[in-house]
Specification:
The protein folds into 2 domains: 3-203, no CATH class; 207-459, MetI-like (MetI-like fold), CATH 1.10.3720. The protein has helices at residues 16-24, 28-32, 36-56, 66-69, 72-82, 101-139, 145-155, 157-183, 205-212, 214-249, 257-264, 266-269, 272-282, 289-296, 313-341, 345-353, 358-386, 389-395, 414-424, 428-452, 454-459, and strands at 3-5, 90-91, 94-95, 141-143. It is built from 21 helices and 4 strands. Helices cover 69% and strands 2% of the residues. Helix 8 crosses helix 20 and helix 13 runs parallel beside helix 18. The chain is flat and about 90 Å long. The strands form 2 sheets. It has a two-stranded antiparallel ribbon with strand order 1-4. It has a two-stranded antiparallel sheet with strand order 2-3.
Length: 460
């Protein structure tokens, strides 16, 4: 081990002194501890932050103003706080120079995330200066930079490997989430559309509007209620049908079981959008074959408007659940088949010796073991159905219309309603409010259910 042994008779230095030095100038504490390579590394990192700010700004003019002269960090924070002070104007020559509130917000979020990375390095720098002096005081030995890197590699290997992915995750996933959440606290609508107008912060006004304005609150509660019903119904029906089919196909009395599994897996193998568009044509109230068939057989006296009759919204909802059942049960069938294959046959043999009937075997052995293994996947399926945009949008487009709702139909769930608020009506602030509420609802239900599952308890 490459180390530098020191004379232990040297007076020990308080570790707080190098830590304080590194808190002021990065790497100075390491320099005090005579760890020169680490001192250079941390100093260059601090220098890079200063250089980025100076090189991206204009700090050499006599009159300094943040809007015109600020660099990456200073102007980014300014833009996030103010969202701009000078709107652009549309002239015959084009759009004049000015501020774009949304771009400023995005840049500000990026600056905050980059600054968070620098803060993490800063804390590492201070802690390392403190720990380096503590170790030297106790052992009289200074680790070389090579030994230090080997120690980090051996102790923090997993975090080192995950670090690039975490950084990418921050900018590709966390940043859009933060942007969506912050939009809920602005007046970003079609009446305040950049670049000719500026967006401003309004605090909790949008949340108060959701509660105080009846049309918003009634629409939200109605859409939320149907969303919960839809998520539970679509998840339970697909799980029950998939389990039923898996139990039947797992019976040894069934011949050509592989062939039957292949047939039943087809609804899942076909792209969902194609299936939904086919079903939409089949259930068309004007020229769909199902309405025509019911009319020819005398079951109905007129064509049925499955998805467009505002007087019968439950008809559209039930049809949605049935179509989703057709598309979703093969997934659970394949899942349950795999789980049931792993159940030891000795359990069934012992149950038969004890006189258990097939019904008892299913209730006492198959169902508990299947639920134990599949509970996390069922919960994830529920969360997926809560935001199942494709099925609603491509089949009913949220219809039939509902005059009591604000920009929503009778089969709209929260995610399709948000889509209409953003793309069709450009009410980005209210859409962000509902996105936050969806996150709270799904997150709370998922965490509560996962904590009750055995698989979750075994992992944690």
């Amino acid at each position: 081990m490459n180390t530098e042994k020191q004379n232990k008779s040297v007076k020990k230095l308080q570790p707080a002194y190098p830590a304080a030095a590194s808190a002021l100038v990065w790497g100075s504490g390491q320099l005090w501890n005579k760890e020169y390579i680490k001192a250079l590394f941390f100093f260059l990192l601090q220098l890079s932050m200063v250089c980025v700010e100076i090189c991206t700004g204009n700090y050499f003019e006599a009159s300094y103003r943040i809007r015109e002269n600020g660099g990456f960090f200073i102007k980014g924070v300014w833009g996030l706080i103010t969202l701009g002070t000078k709107p652009r104007t549309l002239t015959l020559a084009g759009v004049t120079e000015g501020d774009h509130s949304i771009i400023l917000m995005i840049r500000g979020i990026i600056v905050v995330l980059v600054f968070a990375l620098y803060i993490a390095i800063y804390l590492w720098n201070v802690k390392d200066a403190y720990n380096g002096r503590v170790q030297f005081n106790e052992t009289g030995i200074r680790r070389s930079a090579l030994d230090y890197m080997k120690e980090i590699w051996s102790k923090c290997f997993h975090y080192v490997i995950l670090l690039p992915g975490i950084v990418l995750l921050m900018f590709l996933s966390v940043m859009p989430i933060i942007f969506s959440a912050l939009t809920a606290f602005t007046n970003y609508t079609k009446s305040n559309m950049p670049p000719t107008k500026l967006v401003s912060w309004v605090g909790l006004k949008n949340f108060f509007n959701l509660v105080n304005i009846p049309v918003w609150s009634e629409t939200f509660m109605g859409v939320l209620g149907w969303t919960v019903v839809w998520a539970f119904a679509s998840t339970f029906t697909c799980f029950a049908a998939g389990l039923f089919q898996a139990v039947i196909l797992n019976n040894e009395k069934i011949k050509f079981r592989k062939m039957w599994r292949g047939i039943y897996i087809l609804p899942w193998a076909i792209p969902g959008m194609i299936s939904l568009l086919v079903f939409r044509t089949m259930f068309n109230g004007q020229f769909g074959p199902i309405s025509q068939l019911l009319l020819d057989w005398g079951i109905t006296e007129q064509r049925v408007s499955w998805f467009t009759d505002p007087t019968r919204p439950n008809l559209a909802r039930i049809t949605l659940i049935l179509v989703n059942l057709w598309m979703g049960f093969p997934y659970f069938m394949a899942l349950m088949t795999g789980i049931m294959t792993g159940i030891p046959q000795e359990l069934y043999e012992a149950a038969k010796l004890d006189g258990a009937s097939p019904k008892d075997e299913f209730r006492r052995i198959t169902l508990p073991l299947v639920l134990n293994a599949a509970s996390p996947l069922i919960i994830m399926s529920f969360a997926g159905n809560f935001n199942n945009f494709g099925t609603i949008y491509f089949l009913t487009d949220g219809g039939p219309t509902n005059t009591n709702y604000q920009f929503a139909g009778s089969t709209d769930i929260l995610i399709t309603w948000i889509y209409k608020l953003t793309l069709d009506n450009q009410l980005y602030n209210m859409a962000s409010v509902f996105s936050i509420l969806i996150f709270i609802v799904i997150g709370s239900i998922s965490i509560w259910n996962l904590r009750r599952t055995k698989a979750f308890k075994e992992d944690f």
